[in-house]
Description:
Layout: E1 2-3, H1 8-23, H2 28-35, H3 39-46, H4 54-64, H5 68-82, H6 96-107, E2 110-115, H7 126-135, H8 140-153, E3 164-170, H9 171-175, H10 181-195, E4 200-205, E5 219-223, E6 230-234, E7 239-242, H11 245-261, H12 265-280
Parallel strand pairs: 2-3, 3-4
Antiparallel strand pairs: 1-7, 2-5, 5-6, 6-7
Amino acid sequence: MARKAATARGRTLGAELLALRKHRGLTTRAAAERIGWTAATLNRTENGLRVATAEEVATVLGAYGVVGGERERLLALARDAETPGWWEPGDSIYPTPLKALIGFEAQATRITNVEISLVPGLLQIPEYARAVMLASGIPPLEIETRVATRMGRQAILSRPQPPKLLAVIDEAALLRPVGGRHVMTEQLHHLQRLARKPNIEIRVLPLDAGAHSALAGPFTILEFGRANPLVHQGGKRSISFVDSAPEVAEFVASVDTLRRTSLPPDRSVALIAKIIALKGS
Length: 281
């Protein structure tokens, strides 16, 4: 069931506190009494629907008897959760769902992006992104800000300890000359360069594969260190997140099927090179 998702930092911190409570064999009610909270407050905190302050986390850690390096690590995580990211200024121009997505991407350890019509946003060059936005009817005055935001999101792929990214792209998206032949050729060259990075895997769904499960629409699976995975689905007018385990499992199963249907990384890169050669002829 799609619903408004918890914040990325809240989910990460909450998952850590949940693991601590379970490790100590405490029920929600017993732990809440020990901390001095209501069971509802603790439940919301563990689910990421409420972000605890560093002071509150210190109280929880004291109640659970956590000391030493583990205590310092969790307090640092709590302080980080209180620090706004670059996408979270007080008068943010970014809509709440987009801020949520950027936050989840920043916290994810693995991202799986399935796209049918376009190159995934995390792999787009500025000119390609600009052409997509212009064709989507985004006001020209907003386009440059949105392009800059998209490029900012991509920084996670080159940071220390970057997330693993699996991009499954339909061949049709690679054949469509978004922005014209020159822009599309540069975009394809960019995909070739990215495919050489150890944390990025690109797989192409060839046209001759026929119908496949991704035709139902694009989606992104975000996985985290402790928090449960969730699925992002975005359209022109809406962004939704799915985090119920049975529904997430359906998307994971779809990716398993698409892995078998798609070309392996080396053949995918070879196909991209072939498309570049055809565009240059």
